[in-house]
Amino acid sequence: MAEARAVAEKIVSNVERVIVGKRREVELTVVALMCGGHVLIEDVPGVGKTMLARSIARSTGCIFRRIQFTPTCFPPT
Q1: Could you tell me the pTM of the whole model?
Q2: Number of domains comprising the chain
Q3: What pLDDT was estimated at residue 43?
């Protein structure tokens, strides 16, 4: 347990170099990923969603790929 906590804190600390003032969001994202879960990041434009995902990927040695989705991607029926 202590080892998992140390890894999580190291990831959070590394991400906080880029994402400032969003510690809770960073911690929750790291917890979800360490538990093998999925994370859907939704918010208004310009608040750092992509930067959060990119910095967590880099901190964990993963590959980052962005998927753009907006309600306007599909024509109305």
Answers
A1: 0.78
A2: 1
A3: 84
